[in-house]
Write a structure and sequence with these properties.
The structure is a homodimer.
Chain A: H1 12-19, H2 23-30, H3 38-51, H4 57-64, E1 69-74, H5 80-95, E2 99-104, H6 109-117, E3 126-129, E4 148-151, E5 161-165, H7 167-180, E6 186-191, H8 198-213, E7 223-225, H9 231-244, E8 250-253, H10 256-268, E9 278-280, E10 297-299, H11 302-318, E11 326-329, E12 332-334
Parallel strand pairs in A: 1-2, 1-3, 3-4, 4-5, 5-11, 6-7, 6-8, 8-9
Antiparallel strand pairs in A: 10-12
Helix pairs in contact in A: 1-2, 1-3, 5-11, 7-8, 9-10
Chain A binds a DNA duplex through α2 and α4.
DNA sequence: GGACGCATGTGCAACGTTGTAAATCCTAGC
DNA sequence: GCTAGGATTTACAACGTTGCACATGCGTCC
């Protein structure tokens, strides 16, 4: 009856007493120590089952200096890309026997800094960190004394493991796709002025490279600023573009949320997608396949990113090799209706 | 320089030694024990700062029997409703000084049962559980010996706290809204045959009530089954409806994902929304405001649900009152373009 | 026949913190 | 100056587990 749970205080001592062995033997059984006679193992297992024993993880953590918890710090779960990323990270972690503590930074720089030194780091064996606001100037803050894996592009070349994607090439592919459809006046929305690093800057770089490779002149009026990559921002960018009267026949949203906001705003103004304006996004969130029209996008290999990140972190936690690694995930162009496919 | 972090082993003993007090005094300072001389407190604080001391939370947990972590079990984060719910729960928890461990059940019954008895329950002080597949027969499994707050409708009247919404009334309001727009052939998508409990059954009940109240006959052909409430299912439901040739001028998606899938499928078939077919969803996910056309929905008071759930759980963890409570969150109709607003 | 070596099981201490109860310090009251 | 009584501080044990070093048991090799 007593069920399990933990509150109810059945410890290794109880199991040991019932099985007639020492506490340490129970510990050995639980931890799959190899040298145990089958009979003993069975006896102990029976006692465990009978009492509904569950390991006290706090005690184990105290003793081992490990919690079996990894942290995942990201901007916010209500952004679909990060929700899907979290989903993948949790699955990957579960497959490897650890659990995930999620912290939201709200894309606030101070909050991102805080997360690195929070008391909670003491509760996790390591951190997978996806910063949005930290820049090269904050590199020092990332020199932490616990295992850290950084996702994304904001800060290069520090002493930590890094999982990223080739933003430049991916953005170039997205832009090239628009060009292949015959578009020449391609707007980019969500740019971050003044940044030379980070996803925004790199993706704009890829955009420029594609234009250059096709001999299309760069029109600064087609590059629209947009701080937060939310749907609302995407809509505002379109409003801005239309407001300035600049001509455009395609929109490259630096992420899908921006592109979705753009779709929305274009639709509201009666501008046909893709006939009048083609739209492509970046991230390939689940939504992209269900909008009207469906949204072309760049699939960033989210699953791969999540798994690599967890693997790198666990390797770092386990100790061993010293070299910090950079993993670059694969991307793929996913053409859909919004670019006429 | 040594920064903080925790790996690096500075304990209360170190602080005590540096400050020239006992370990317990350090503990007292850290825990804001009232009777400490200001001079002592200052001395200790200085030592703490100097050494960059951080409390070892595993040790504290072991000693106190509490971890400061609460669990949140939900189907999957890639479903926008649950991502947004998780966002709200994490915020609410943070405001109250606890952190959240998320477990995904994948909407699998066995996985939902496992989560209740998992070793991880030992790591959390309590659980907020949003089951999708458990039914009344599983009520016994929910009789656990740790603090539990159940979200949603699947299982009523057990010995646990419950945060829910009035699904029947909300569904009735959604249906009534469609009727108010002059619709009479209203399809429902995502129904679960044979269930008498759970969101699906209750929302269908509200749908039926609205029809009855307006003297509209119930046509079973307009009630379309749909197990998983994903976008893909919503699209399939529309395909099914169209396939059977049954006439309809409105669709009530039992959640927004279904409704979004329906919008998609209707668009693909060239059926105009809302002129030919009006569509309403349920959950009011962020997406609903950005689709084309924007999606009318029922806002379930997600923020309120999250806060109440965390508050109930923390109250239960703190002990105290014995009576199990049921909180019913408010809902609101949010009319948008998809119903002609 | 004795010793060696591996398989198996055990006792003890320690992980870092906090509850308890008791020690010590002060200040006011006489 | 002396003492009661609250304010402060402290020593000790215990939370449940595991690493370590060691004890025991047993088959095998010379």
């Amino acid at each position: 009856m007593s069920s399990s749970g933990g509150r109810g205080a059945v410890t290794m001592h109880d199991v040991a007493a019932l099985a007639g062995v020492s506490v340490k033997t129970v510990s050995n059984v639980v931890n799959d120590y190899p040298h145990i006679r089958p009979a003993t193992r069975e006896k102990v297992q029976k006692a465990i089952d009978e009492l509904g024993y569950r390991m006290n993880l706090s005690a184990r953590s105290l003793r081992q200096g490990r919690t079996g918890i990894i942290g995942l710090a990201l901007p916010e779960l209500s952004l679909p890309y990060f929700a899907e990323l979290a989903d993948s990270v949790i699955r990957a972690a579960e497959a490897r026997g650890v659990v995930v503590l999620i912290e939201q930074t709200g894309a606030d720089r101070q909050h991102e800094l805080d997360v690195l030194t929070s008391d909670r780091r003491q509760l996790t064996d390591g951190l997978i960190f996806s910063p949005l606001e930290l820049g090269p100037d904050d590199a020092d803050a990332l020199k932490v004394d616990y295992p850290l894996v950084v996702l994304g592009e904001r800060i290069f070349g520090g002493d930590w493991d890094h999982v990223t994607m080739n933003n430049v090439d991916a953005a170039r592919a997205a832009t090239q796709h628009l060009i292949d459809q015959g578009r020449r006046r391609i707007a980019v929305i969500g740019a971050h002025a003044g940044e030379t690093m980070g996803s925004a800057a790199l993706r704009v770089l890829g955009y420029q490279a594609a234009l250059a490779a096709n001999g299309i002149p760069l029109d600064p009026d087609l590059i629209v600023e947009g701080g937060l990559w939310h749907r609302a921002t995407g809509a505002e960018c379109i409003d801005h573009l239309v407001g300035t009267g600049v001509e455009f026949d395609a929109v490259f949203g630096l992420n899908d949320a921006l592109a979705l906001g753009a779709l929305h705003a274009l639709h509201a103004r009666g501008i046909d997608v893709p006939d009048t304006v083609a739209v492509i996004g970046f991230d390939d969130i689940e939504d992209a396949a269900y909008t009207s029209p469906t949204l072309s996008s760049i699939s960033p290999g989210r699953e791969q990113i999540a798994q690599e990140a967890v693997d790198l972190l666990l390797a770092r936690i386990a100790g061993g090799d010293e070299a910090f690694r950079r993993v670059i995930a694969d991307f793929a162009l996913v053409p859909r209706e919004s670019t006429g496919s």
